[in-house]
Specification:
The protein has 253 residues and is of the alpha+beta class. Helix content is 67%, strand content 12%. Among the domains are: 47 residues; 54 residues; 58 residues, Nucleotide Exchange Factor Grpe, Chain A, domain 2 (Roll), CATH 2.30.22. Helix 1 packs across helix 2. Its main location: mitochondrion.
C-alpha cells in the first residue's frame, strides 16, 4: 500500500527541470514530507479499522438488553421458590413451637394460681388478725359477767344502809366508807380490762343499752327518759356485756 501511494503521488506531481543544487536542497524535504503524510494516513486508516473491529466484537459479546418487565418477572420467578422454602417449617421447629405454646399456657396457669393463693393468704391474714383481736378483747367476757355479780352485791350492801344510820353510828359510817372504797377499786380494775359501767340515769331510752323494766309518770322528768336504775349495765370494749335494767318516765297519751 505504501508503494502504491508513492507511485500515485509521483504521477500526480509534474516533473520540472531542476538543477543539481536545487535538487540537493529540495529533494530531501519533499521526500520527508511525502513519507510523513503517507504514514499519518496509514496510521489513521489502521486506527479506524481497529475501532470498527473492537465495536463489532463488543457488540457481538454483549447480550441483548432486557426491558424492566422481563427483569421483574425473572426476579419474581426466582424469589417465589425461595419464599416457599422459607415458609415451610421443619418438624423440629413445629415441635419446638408446640412445646413453647404449652409452656406459655402452663406459666399463665401458674401465675393465676399464684395470684389467687396470694389473695387467699392475705384474706386469711386479715381474718386471723380480726379473730385474734376479738379473742383478745372478749376473752374475759364470761369471766367479766361473773364479776358483775360482785358489783351488784356491793350496790345491794351499800343501798341498804340508811342515811340516818350513817349520821348516828360512826362505826357503820366507817364500814360503809370502806365498802364503798372497795367497790371503787374493783370498778377501776374492771375498767383497765375494758369493762365500763353504763350511766343511764336521766338519759333517753336506748334499746341497745337499756332494758325497760317498768314505766311510771313523773311530772318533773322528761317523758321517755330513765329516772330509776334497778341494775347497772356494763360494756366490754364497747360491746354490751349486760344492759342496764331501768325504769322510764311514762309518756302521757
Amino acid at each position: 500500500m505504501h508503494r502504491t501511494f508513492t507511485h500515485v503521488l509521483k504521477r500526480s506531481i509534474p516533473p520540472r527541470p531542476i538543477t543539481l543544487s536545487s535538487a540537493r536542497s529540495t529533494c530531501s524535504p519533499v521526500y520527508f514530507n511525502a513519507q510523513q503524510v503517507i504514514g499519518q494516513r496509514f496510521n489513521s486508516t489502521r486506527a479506524s479499522q481497529n475501532e470498527q473491529g473492537d465495536a463489532s466484537s463488543s457488540s457481538a459479546a454483549a447480550p441483548p438488553p432486557k426491558n424492566e418487565e422481563q427483569t421483574a418477572e425473572h426476579n419474581t420467578e426466582q424469589a417465589a421458590p425461595e419464599a416457599e422454602a422459607e415458609n415451610v417449617e421443619s418438624p423440629e421447629l413445629i415441635e419446638l413451637r408446640e412445646k413453647l405454646d404449652k409452656k406459655d399456657k402452663d406459666l399463665a396457669a401458674m401465675k393465676n394460681h399464684y395470684t389467687r393463693a396470694k389473695a387467699d393468704f392475705r384474706h386469711l391474714q386479715e381474718t386471723t388478725k380480726v379473730e385474734v383481736e376479738k379473742a383478745k378483747n372478749f376473752a374475759l367476757q364470761k369471766f367479766a359477767k361473773d364479776l358483775l355479780e360482785s358489783v351488784d352485791n356491793f350496790d345491794l350492801a351499800l343501798g341498804h344502809v340508811k342515811q340516818e344510820t350513817l349520821e348516828k353510828n360512826t362505826e357503820v359510817k366507817n364500814l360503809y366508807d370502806g365498802v364503798n372504797m372497795t367497790k371503787d377499786v374493783f370498778l377501776k380494775t374492771l375498767f383497765k380490762f375494758g369493762i365500763k359501767k353504763i350511766e343511764p340515769l336521766d338519759e333517753p331510752f336506748d334499746p341497745n343499752l337499756h332494758e325497760a323494766v317498768f314505766e311510771a309518770p313523773h311530772p318533773d322528768k322528761t317523758p321517755g327518759t330513765v329516772f330509776f336504775v334497778q341494775q347497772n349495765g356494763f360494756t366490754l370494749n364497747d360491746r354490751v356485756l349486760r344492759p342496764a335494767k331501768v325504769g322510764l318516765v311514762k309518756v302521757e297519751e
